[in-house]
Amino acid sequence: MNAIFRSIIVMVMAFSVVACNKDNTPKGDDQNSGDVFVSFGVNIPAASSLRAETEVGTEAENKISKVLVVLYNATTNDVDYNFSFDIKYSGKSGENFVGNDISNATSATSSRFVTVAQMVKKQDYKIAVFLNPTARILEATQKGRRATELDAVLGKDDLLHNDGHIQMTNEQGLVSISSSALKPSVAEAEAAPVRVTVDRVVAKVVVNGEGVVAKTVGDAVSDLEWTLDVTNKKSFLMRKFAPLGGTLTMEAQGDNSDRAMRYATDPNFDGNYDTMSSTDLAAEFDYITVPTSLVTANATTAMYVLENTMAKEKQYTVATTQVFLKLVYTPSGLQKGKTWVLYRGKKMHLDDFNTKIQEAKNSGATDASLDMPTGFVDEMKTKSAYPDEALKEPHLSIFKDGVCYYRIPIRHFGDNVSPDKMSYGRYGLVRNNVYTVNIKSVSIPGEPKNTPPDPNTPDDKKDTYISFNISVNYWYIRTQNISL
After folding, report:
1. Mean pLDDT of 452-461
2. Domain 204-330+402-478, what fold?
3. Fold category of 35-200 in CATH
4. Boundaries of each Minor fimbrium subunit Mfa1 C-terminal domain copy (predicted)?
């Protein structure tokens, strides 16, 4: 896929001018005090080649309605300046950035623009860039506020918009700019921009069930739908560093590390997930109870969530974001959509199973005469007919309407980076990545009803019922192929 939206590069161009004019007069109260000017150039780079591990993203994912640049005093860490620009991008292919705060010095395109100049004092700064900032960020970046507020643990309402916009901010923390980078002329500043790369604050998940097959000859799977379970309720505004995959070297600002090797440290990175239940962790994660609002499993439908990472020894399903998959499983010879029973390996319609229960009460009935598995007569002759409801018992599962469920913990690093079970970064979601889960095949029926994640179940559990792969993109794509 094209890497045009692999990342967003924010070019901050600082320069001094002798006089200001109508086009570059700064706005706000005392923000116009200073002795030099700064202009900000934002670049969404167009790729010169195609890369399979990246994707452009949709119009909604690329849309930018507000640009905020904040300058923190490098000595006091207070906000000295916050510049909010009237600059927008529709996200549509072929359209350009527009707005009243775009400089006339450089023509805006679909991938870059330069802002009107703003006056600042000549000193060292730390820079934060926000595209589509939320109300919480606008409030936290007012003049005089501290840079430490950017380290706060924030909830979903503080980080996410409800109108489809995606907030973006610095990829590797605040970027320092020295006073010497404030050039004595416009031309010199534009020739030597300071660059800040930003990430979306969410991860994207796609589940594609097109072309899925049942491994058992004669069986069929259909009507795949999904949602996400165990999603993080909180995150940091900017991604916190973690050791890189493979080398386990700690990531550092400006290290030019491979994005495919990056992980993250989230607010609940190191919990006691091998012992705590979903009830214990209700303040940390959202868990589904009744599986509603499921979406079709195809190549285009996506969900967006906060990143969720964990220490290698804490990779348990109770704390790992996972795909909750629903499908209709139809065994060979049975009718699609009709409730069926799995009893000690034998599959049959519920109506027929209840008939066998009645026949088991007859004198002389045997397992063989009823063509049922060993132990059926002894176990069922005192039972009543089962209702048309989902059920899970030690030897009996009832799949109402043929529906069954699967859970797929989402992988971050593939086997090429984390080949061993419970190895570092094997599971988790990191912001600005696309996790594409391709459902390839289904070998056996799943669970007849929703079963909450078990704290005693590691993500690398022994049983595998679904075949899949997961890919992640920049939007970095990570693909996970699954066979159930």
Report:
1. 81
2. Immunoglobulin-like (2.60.40)
3. Immunoglobulin-like (2.60.40)
4. 398-481
